[in-house]
Amino acid sequence: MRGSRFMAEIQLEKTALGLELGSTRIKAVLIGPEHAVLASGAHDWENRLEHGYWTYALDDVWAGVQDAFARLARQVQERYGTPLHTVGAMGVSGMMHGYLPFARDGAQLAAFRTWRNTTTERAAALLTERFAFNVPQRWSVAHLYQAILDGEPHVRDIAYLTTLAGYVHWRLTGERVLGVGEASGMFPIDSVACGYDAGMEKTFDALLAQEGMPYRLADILPRVLCAGAAAGTLTAEGACLLDPTGVLRPGVPLCPPEGDAGTGMAATNSVGVRTGNVSAGTSVFAMAVLERPLARVYPEIDMVTTPTGRPVAMVHCNTCTSDLDAWVRVLGEMAGAAGAKLEKPRLYDLFYQKALEGEADCGGLVSYNYYSGEPVTGVESGRPLFMRRPDARFTLANFARVQLYAAMATLKLGMDILVVEEGVRLDTLLGHGGLFKTPVAGQKLLAGALGVPVAVMETAGEGGPWGMALLAAYCVRRAEGQTLEEYLADTVFRGAQGSVQQPDAADTAGFARFLTDYKSGLAVEKAAAAALR
């Protein structure tokens, strides 16, 4: 019986809990000693545009975290007949980057500014020049410096600056720390030292002094930890925050908090050199673990790290499936109005399968999925836009295909820098996220678009929360002497099943024709943003 089989594992503290705060969903996943998912819980939420910034309220953070955990705990009780009073280890992950400043007394000084904001162009450009290292607009240090340049009054009172994952971890444990992968989205990292780059830190401290700030960077940033390091334990206050019912006990060890990029790498076994992964959901980013440094600085390429500090080239695009989701929703409303109400998974399967029937170049259709600005293409403010020539072949299949192509186009422009200009070699790309939930379609079209084999494992649907649970499990097993790379390859993914789609020549050629029109039409996208305020 399933319940009796796993009850002892839960009671004997052999489980690991991963909690991830994504852009549209907060999810908790509990795994057993063999890394299979025992239970899960989720809570949907959305960002809001307030006073010119994309943000989430911290009250909503805790309402969502508590709801996701409560749903997971309820599932444990129902499946295994035991209350979830403890776990063997846990870890917190969240969407990377952004800006969460706090005063000495713990008061929040400014609304949370998420990765989605493109309001730091001046600061990012100045820091990139000073560091000779690409600092993207969404990085925490860019937000900090922009706030200083803008003379925002709160900046003088900052005692602690962190990310969403770092904030939740801090409240649960009292520890002001970050995993190195998450920290690499705050400030440039020295991979050898597994810490912030000392030279760049000194440069930034000089800028702080020049602006009259009463602190140095080291005074306000979280301490950096590599995967496997102890990162504190769940306090009594933290246990009550996570589980207000009081069932969950304090004392659970936590691993370093990581970002969604790091959990994606763990969830796809993409932490070794020449491995890479694509996470495709609300945003899309591709990660390539490098054999050597890049030849020069590219504004389109972020340099981040694996959870162990290995250098990673990252192509990050702000929007992926949001516009596609909107079109599927509208088509679902049409189907419902016609008396054919379809469940959401069925709608998506139909739409994706129809895309496979479309012409390789979408019949001349062009679509832009930009809900916000997109630094990779130099678009400051996004407007979703679909357009076509009068003689374009406007069919449902071509329309479905162009929505998937739009979700991949900006990523392709960034990946060409790595693969074509830098000669980065990848044996395969592991795909995970919503774009790959329907079998074959997203995987096949992305392989054709990028010209790289794309693999999807059976575990791909588990995603970041599962990856976070793996990092938590590794943290308590670190005494066994395995590196994270060895632990994932030899213990977690040994014998893992999956499928690989090789690039199809017709798809590759068709996507290239589509991309020619896409690049030409970027002027229209920019004009739309200027015209529709």
Automatic annotation (TrEMBL):
Residues 16-240 form the Carbohydrate kinase FGGY N-terminal domain. SUPFAM superfamilies: Actin-like ATPase domain (SSF53067). Keywords: Kinase, Transferase. The keyword Transferase applies. GO terms for biological process: carbohydrate metabolic process. Residues 277-474 form the Carbohydrate kinase FGGY C-terminal domain. Pfam families: FGGY_C (PF02782), FGGY_N (PF00370). InterPro entries: ATPase_NBD, FGGY_C, FGGY_Carb_Kinase, FGGY_N. One of its GO terms (molecular function) is kinase activity. Belongs to the FGGY kinase family. This is ATPase. It comes from Ruthenibacterium lactatiformans.
